[in-house]
Amino acid sequence: METILLATSDRKLQKELKELFRGRFIITLAGTARESLRVVNKQEVHLVLLDTPLPGVGTEELVREVKSNASEAVIVSLSPPE
Questions:
Q1: Cβ neighbours of residue 28 under 8 Å, at least 6 residues apart?
Q2: What is the per-residue burial (b if ≥16 Cβ within 10 Å, else e) of 24-52?
Q3: Which pLDDT belongs to residue 54?
Q4: Are 18 and 6 spatial neighbours (Cβ–Cβ below 8 Å)?
Q5: Yes or no: domain 3-77 corresponds to CATH 3.40.50.2300
Q6: Tell me, what's the pLDDT at 80?
Q7: For residue 29, what are the contacts with CB-CB under 8 A and spacing of at least 6?
Q8: Residue 35 to residue 72: CA distance in whole angstroms
Q9: Widest CA span of the chain, in angstroms?
């Protein structure tokens, strides 16, 4: 089963997306940029749903770090560009 990282500090959005994907994907939640980086460093992630800004590092730095650790992961931004 493929893994989706839901990277958002919005608890309501986390709950809604987790419910949407339940049973079809492994769902991992991260509420900060640092939590997101810990996840991609520890496990294989196929899709990152990124709701920015996240507490921690900036969006561009976060995307660079995710791509360097999970180069095959697709990153989808749920927010307009900064």
A1: 3, 4, 5, 6, 39, 43, 45
A2: eeebbbbbbbebbbebbeeeebebbbbbb
A3: 85
A4: yes
A5: yes
A6: 66
A7: 5, 6, 14, 18
A8: 19
A9: 33
Low-confidence stretches of the chain (pLDDT beneath 50): none
Task: Quote the pTM value.
Answer: 0.88
Tokens of 41: 């460093």
Q: Yes or no: say if 45 and 32 are a contact pair by the CB < 8 Å rule.
A: no
Q: CB-side exposure of 12: number of CA atoms within 13 Å?
A: 0
CA 7 vs. chain centroid, Å, equals 3
* SS3 track for the chain: CCEEEEECCCHHHHHHHHHHHECCEEEEEECCHHHHHHHHHHCCCCEEEECCCCCCCCHHHHHHHHHHHCCCCEEEECCCCC
